[in-house]
Amino acid sequence: MAQSASKTCEICVCSPGHNYCEQCDQLFCDGCKVSHLRSKIATNHTFLSGPSVIPEVKQYCKEHNESFIYYCMECDMPICKICVIKNHKSHNFAEIKESTEEIKAEVKEVIEMKIRNLQSNIAGIEQSSNKYKADICNVIKVISEEAEQLILMIKEKIKCLIMSLREKETQKIQTLQSLDNEFKTGLEKAKKQHKLYEDTQQITDTTKMLKQLKQIKSQIDAVEENPVPAIPFVKYANKMVSRSEI
């Protein structure tokens, strides 16, 4: 069976096969297509044409010329009623529509759970960042208020403390922002798979839908959900000091 229009013509085997005959299930080049349509037996045949055309996945078993009605769990493939008896008798299998519905529900649940978790993580990162920034501002305010009551000798110390806090703030915020970007990237991937999942609802071919859903499930399982790290903590304890201690 022809798998892709990017292959060569299955008749002359030398030119690109850009034309797929739906009745013969074969790829033709432009010249062989014309010759094919001139024959009496193929006068009414229809073609799918174009450099990226993908032949429709057939819903019947080519070996037995029977429709696919089951899906073999052990072999991971659709099978007909004759295949069950001849090649899959002792295997676990289910109706293909039932298998499709099960994985459709499973993929939907996984996608929605991923999106919820990623959105929750992003919200946690944003909340942590805001709280940490507020803590830094409060500490700077306390340090500044205390500095006003101290003599010139401690001003340099105050300056060093603030600089140290700013450096820590920059490092922590960069770390949190990096994690935030990772979660957002994961969310975009999950949403993309959700869009692909919604697109599968328009597929009438259950075999093709099942294959697409398995691919989506594989992609969404690969989206990482790292836990939100501990929220950075900072505080300043106000204290009275004597000149000798300074």
From TrEMBL:
This is B box-type domain-containing protein. The keyword Zinc-finger applies. Gene3D superfamilies: Classic Zinc Finger. Keywords: Coiled coil, Metal-binding, Zinc, Zinc-finger. CDD domains: Bbox1. PROSITE patterns: ZF_BBOX (PS50119). The lineage of its organism: Eukaryota, Metazoa, Spiralia, Lophotrochozoa, Mollusca. Transmembrane segments: none annotated. InterPro entries: TRIM45/56/19-like, Znf_B-box. Residues 4-50, 56-96 form the B box-type domain. GO terms for molecular function: zinc ion binding. SUPFAM superfamilies: B-box zinc-binding domain (SSF57845). Residues 108-135 form a coiled coil.
